[in-house]
Amino acid sequence: MAITLLEISLCLFENLCSFIFIDRLLRHKNRNHLFLFITAVIVKSFLDYSVIGASLLIKVPSFVISGIILCLILYDTHIYIPSMFFLTFSYIFCIIDLIIGNFLTIFSENNILSIFYDSFIQRVVICVLVKILDALTLFLIYKMLNKIVPSFNRKIWLMFNAVMGVFLLITILFMTAYPNSHPSKPAEYLYTVLFLVFFILSLLIIYVLTFVAATFKENEKIHILRSTYASIEESLISQTENIQVIKKIRHDIKNNLLLIGSLIQNGDTEEASSIIRQSVSQIEFASVGLSQSTGRGVVDAVIANKAALARSRHISFSYKLDYIPAIAIDSIDISSVITNLLDNALESAEKETNGFAEIKIINMESYIAINVINSCSSLPQTSSSDKNILITTKTDKTLHGFGTEIINDIAKKHGGSFVWKFSDHIFNANVLLKKP
To answer: Taking each helix axis from N to C terminus, what angle separates 2-23 and 120-145, rounded to the nearest 10 degrees?
Structure first.
């Protein structure tokens, strides 16, 4: 009875650690997630216990397949993602058992199986040690994968599956053959070192893969930032050109008024009306300036450009701008935040019949607050790893989440925050940037 309870407890612990790991990285599919999560842990634990006496060639595939099926029920994911997780879990559980068991044989005359199963008390102590190491290793791998899992593309996931599958297969072959052998003490030392090196090597490979993926992700973010900067430059150029047009219109307006007056006196009202219409058209074309100013030319240019873009898309656009003092917050950082916020707002508002967007920049005592609200028909999708990061609805999915990630990064850089809420078909985003 005691052995049965111990085995069930070990299965529960392994699966609880596994699903907590996964739960932090993948997006839930169901509202009653907590109930389904607990049910999945219990069901999988009893499935694992039911094959506990079988060979590894049955136990390991059963552990992996049942985990994949339950993950597909619980999470919004593809099959190659949970398969990679459970191949990794199986490998970690097996290799740590192998390392600890082989290490203990150095100080005992018994083989691995005898060390694990001959004494109940001894088995409990060893299992507690093993499970602590299992949990610590899973936490280490979680830290490697956290924040970059959403950016993995299919090829990287398949590569991970292949690598972990090879590591697991080699470990199973060791575990199947080794208990039946009777190596000498020098051989036991050698095996222990080899298993430990193999384990460290596998962690290094996981680290390298995640590092490469993270580097690729950062490069994409840098590309987006450069594109944003280019957009800001274009806004500033456009604003400068419009100012020149307005200056020209002002220069010509006196002559136009005199001409219109002369035409009216001569009874040529049609020609006068035509000149008036042309003048109004020119003024409307050039009037992308702002009636308020932040005192930052680049920031004003971005907002003016987005205002013109909103007008061209028939989106109602309004703004309320406080003066931003000459403090050590780079105009490019503020402009990048505003650009990404307004791009998201206009993208969402454009889908609505009476779409609108509004921006407020408020100069507070310790912070610069940027608030953007817009019409939004449905709750935006969020990243599985960070509920504050929104996923784009654009066709190019390689850009998903980077806009809000950039906003988040800039807010943190300046000791502030980025939060959003959705209510009654209104999306409300708030960014705080702390003044130095």
So the answer is: 0
Instruction: Name the burial class of residue 371, with classes exposed (0-12), middle (13-18) and buried (19+) by CB atoms within 10 angstroms of its CB.
Output: middle
Between the CA of residue 81 and those of 88, 165, 188, 217, 403, what are the distances in Å? 11, 13, 36, 18, 25
Measure the CA dihedral 312/314/315/319, to 10°: 60
Let me know if 120 is exposed, middle or buried by CB neighbors in 10 A (0-12, 13-18, 19+): exposed
With b meaning 16 or more CB within 10 Å and e meaning fewer, what string describes 140-165? ebbebbebbbbbbeeebbebbbebbb
Q: CA dihedral defined by 153, 158, 161, 162, rounded to 10 degrees?
A: -140
Cβ(322)–Cβ(362) below 8 Å: yes
pLDDT-wise least confident of 176-185, 308-317, 370-379:
176-185
Q: How many whole angstroms separate alpha carbon 99 and alpha carbon 189?
A: 11
Retrieve residue 16's tokens. Answer: 């609880």
Task: Return phi, psi of residue 391, to 5°.
Answer: -100, 130
Write the Ramachandran bin of 267: left for phi over 0, alpha for psi from -120 to 50, otherwise beta: left
Cα separation of 260 and 265, whole Å? 9
Pairing of the two strands 367-375 and 426-434: antiparallel
Strands in 367-375's sheet, in edge-to-edge order, are: 316-321, 356-363, 367-375, 426-434, 417-423
Indicate the SS3 state at residue 215.
helix
pLDDT (tens digit, 9 = 90+) per residue, 123-161? 788 888 888 999 999 999 888 887 666 556 778 888 889
How large is the average pLDDT for residues 53-72? 90
User: Percent of the chain beyond pLDDT 70?
Assistant: 75
pLDDT at 43 > cutoff 90: yes
